[in-house]
Write a structure and sequence with these properties.
Helix content is 73%, strand content 0%. The chain has 452 residues and is mainly alpha-helical.
């Protein structure tokens, strides 16, 4: 590559990273959220907490000596790398297009807020795109890039059980598609994706073993499902019908249970009194499973509603507030040298407001979500646009899987939708770019063919 082109690429990459790090730079400290402290504490507290991956906690602790800036820069660099690979795989390997797409995503999507925050959420979308590239565009990648994507998939799996579930669902769907059309998607590529996901699962066990000295998965499955059923009124219905004959601790407190899952897990004195997750996990699992058997139609109805809600719950900034006392406490306890910088940040001074941001980004997100099936349906029927159609279909499937997993098995939250909705914005931008270039090619041909 000529030196001039190298300079252009270097400028585009650095500009893109700066754009994706802009919220943290403006804030003067990486953004924090309710859950950040739970990840940080895993290195110092030798027990597991539901949905707080040890693997991501280790990443945060590695970046802590430099005020977590290596984490923000690493997340931004990974996002730029994956977006650049997607662009190249679709014939848009130009530095100006990379900078333009990242700039558009920085303004119109949640992406820069995901790369600038100390949370696992960025790895959900990057994991989806990495799996897409490995399965459907591997022939357009170098060997080292395929290995790198496999490592990224494994790390993404290790950072959150919901990300693992979404990628596994995509892998299963890809396996079915491979059986139907092995020419388009060879089974060996599905095997490579499975190997990367399996390596990620092994990484979960390995990092958890570092902390707990035993092989175990990160907890949180049935307890979070119990929370969704509690919020939907199913737990109260079950306890009313089965107490006091059922030998359940919660029978004595069934009229005191809150109807909000977040309040139950993170703000209920009763939950604390009964031993939190350690004390109630077996009983919550028992009630969740029994409720599925007792009320299958009600479960289907509430699951469908939760999935639909989660699909459109995708506003930017949930939990990025100045009252995250647990996270403040963890940083103050284990990293007191960072407290002055943290307290001086705009977030901690209450200067971040997502109202105007969501007035722009949320309608764009919903519009792009509605466009995804149209883009997929239209472009899959066009041979010259088939690859963009496959990307649209893959991302739509990821969004649907995420909505079911997070909405039904946990509880609908804007944060869960926001971590993937930028994929819809990205696909829409690529489809528009593809249509524009196709139109320009036709126009050039007509000019050449027209009589002089």
């Amino acid at each position: 590559m000529p030196m001039r082109d190298r300079a252009r690429w270097a400028f585009a990459i650095l500009l893109s990273m700066a754009l994706l790090s802009a919220p943290a730079i403006w804030n003067r400290f990486p953004l924090l959220q309710y859950d950040t402290g739970g990840y940080l504490a895993r290195w110092f507290e030798p027990y597991l907490v539901p949905s707080r991956a040890v693997a991501y906690g280790l990443m945060l602790n590695i970046g802590a000596p430099l005020s977590f800036w290596p984490v923000v820069l690493g997340q931004s660099a990974l996002a730029v790398w994956v977006i650049a690979l997607v662009l190249r795989a679709h014939g848009f390997a130009r530095p100006g297009i990379l900078a333009g797409i990242v700039a558009a995503l920085s303004v119109f999507s949640t992406l820069p807020w995901l790369t600038s925050i100390l949370l696992t959420d960025i790895f959900a979308g990057l994991g989806v795109l990495a799996l897409y590239l490995l399965l459907l565009r591997a022939d357009r990648l170098r060997r080292g890039e395929r290995i790198g994507l496999g490592i990224l998939i494994a790390v993404s799996v290790a950072t959150h059980s919901a990300t693992f579930a979404v990628l596994f669902a995509l892998l299963v769907a890809s396996g079915v598609f491979s059986l139907l059309d092995p020419h388009r998607l060879p089974l060996r590529r599905v095997g490579q994706g499975a190997l990367a996901i399996a390596f990620g699962a092994a990484l979960v066990f390995a990092t958890n073993a570092v902390i707990t000295k035993r092989l175990t998965w990160t907890p949180g499955g049935f307890a979070l499902s119990f929370g969704r059923m509690l919020q939907d009124g199913i737990v109260k219905k079950y306890l009313d019908e089965h107490c006091p004959t059922a030998t359940l601790v919660l029978c004595a407190y069934k009229d005191e249970l809150p109807r909000d899952a977040d309040e139950w897990f993170w703000g209920s004195p009763l939950f604390d009194k009964l031993g939190r997750f350690a004390g109630l996990d077996p009983e919550m699992e028992r009630i969740a499973l029994a409720s599925i058997a007792a009320y299958p139609l009600l479960q289907l109805k509430t699951a469908a509603i939760a999935t639909a809600r989660q699909l459109i719950d995708a506003r930017t900034g949930e939990g990025v507030v100045n009252s995250i006392w647990h996270t403040y406490g963890i940083i103050g306890r284990y990293m007191p040298q960072l407290v002055p910088q943290m307290r001086a940040a705009r977030q901690q001074r209450g200067e971040i407001d997502f109202t105007m941001i969501n007035r722009l980004q949320y309608p764009v997100a919903l519009a792009c979500l509605l466009l995804l099936p149209l883009i997929g349906g239209f472009m899959l029927r066009r041979k010259d646009m088939n690859d963009i159609g496959e990307l649209a279909a893959f991302c739509l499937l990821a969004l649907l899987a995420n909505a079911f997993i997070c909405g039904t098995l946990s509880n609908p939250h804007d944060r869960y939708g926001a971590r993937l909705i930028w994929l819809a914005v990205n696909v829409t931008a690529l489809a528009a770019l593809h249509l524009y270039e196709a139109r320009e090619r036709l126009r050039s041909r007509s000019i050449v063919a027209s009589p002089q």
